[in-house]
Amino acid sequence: MSSAIPSVHPGRVRVLKQALGPSDQKLVGPVVYWMFRDQRLRDNWALIHAVDQANKSNVPVAIAFNLFDQFKGAKARQFGFMLRGLQKLYFDLQERLSIPFFLFQGEAVDTIPNFLRECEASLLVTDFSPLREVRQWKDELCKRVSESVSIHEVDAHNIVPVWLASDKLEYSARTIRGKINKQLPEYLIDFPKLDPPKKEWVSSSGSVDWGDLIADVLRKGAEVPELEWCEPGEQAAMEVLMGDKKGFLTTRLKNYSSDRNNPMKPKALSGLSPYLHFGQISAQRCALEARKVRKLYPQAVDVFLEELIVRRELADNFCFYQPHYDSLQGAWEWARKTLTDHTSDKREHVYTRKQLEKAQTVDPLWNASQLEMVHYGKMHGFMRMYWAKKILEWTSGPEEAIATSIYLNDKYQIDGRDPNGYVGCMWSICGVHDQGWRERPVFGKIRYMNFAGCKRKFDVDGYIAYVKRVVGECKKRKAQALIDDTKAKLLHS
């Protein structure tokens, strides 16, 4: 292979499986990038690595995406957003990079090895996810693909690759912060320009009937409908970050440090989480652009970078090194003990999952936060802490509380099924990345939150009224959409 300096830092790449023969041997067959977590063309280290490897051996490259019928309870809300973003990526890809895109449906452990065999690929590049299902699929792929195929995993999601940021489960932000900051100069760098691969893919490109595919997904997941307030795709993501009218860094950044924990000021938040979750924007791009404006608002930028880099990477660290990241087994020993000691404590109210889902509790603030999530698809971060802690207070014990909060979070949040979501629920219910506090009934030593505390912090009545308005508007739009849909069907019948 050529001795040119690679575009991608070698620390960002893990070899999951090495093909038989010398490791510096040229690739004979194509490179396939199995895109999963990082669904973008710009600023994507996994795609850059795939093209680099293909160019070094003068072989073509393709992108493969596997669509699962059911991924951890995702509905029309999440699948619709993802597929509409991928549709834009598909056309952008043909126009800009002339790389074919193949979309498969079914089990990735079947579809990906079959495709590698058909196109006689020599290298599979995958992006990184700490979630157990994805890691199990990759383990299985290593067993199922031919001995002539290598598999490389690239952390294109974190700025400092998760396996280099730390080699162990970290206790808190305090213990990982220094380790990440020490490596940022090496990893928080500009991206190289990505040009079309030298060698073109000769066989036919995958054709995708996006209209039918999206309609099918929307029908199957209609129980949780799509959202209108966040437009999917890379272009839309950059608009949220840098747009002239409502861009976070261009028009809303200055109040971030003071207002981000106030549920009455949702516009103070970046609004980037759907795009970061689906990989439609790179956290590294967000950090590079934020650094450019640090002189204007140093405090706001520092707080934003702490959330974007340290807290996000801490969540990935937890899910990567703690196999029980979504159950009581994943809590620290002190938390498990205190929660177990208080499981039989008398609860003032106990609600079923259905009652919680329908926001049928005695607490109007909790009901508002649940309704905001169900209808708007996003709950304010401060409210999510209160929401999860109340679920601990109102269910039979911590196991049920964790399962219920994760079920609701993954079903309704546009950014559900994410390390940040699991860690958010585990922080609230199991004290993960937190410390022990004064002991009290039900909670034990887990940090306590209550209605009175929220009232001191922000305008609770104002928030409840705000959610009422949001829910009313969502219901109105839904009703109008049904009317329009019925009219369209009558016209075509």
UniProtKB/TrEMBL annotation:
The keyword Lipid biosynthesis does not apply. GO terms for biological process: photoreactive repair; UV protection. It catalyses: cyclobutadipyrimidine (in DNA) = 2 pyrimidine residues (in DNA). It is an enzyme of class 4 (lyase). Residues 29-162 form the Photolyase/cryptochrome alpha/beta domain. The keyword Metal-binding does not apply. Its cofactor is FAD. Transmembrane segments: none annotated. GO terms for molecular function: deoxyribodipyrimidine photo-lyase activity; DNA binding. Pfam families: DNA_photolyase (PF00875). Involved in repair of UV radiation-induced DNA damage. Catalyzes the light-dependent monomerization (300-600 nm) of cyclobutylpyrimidine dimers (CPDs), which are formed between adjacent bases on the same DNA strand upon exposure to ultraviolet radiation. Required for plant survival in the presence of UV-B light. Not involved in the repair of (6-4) photoproducts. This is Deoxyribodipyrimidine photo-lyase. It comes from Olea europaea subsp. europaea.
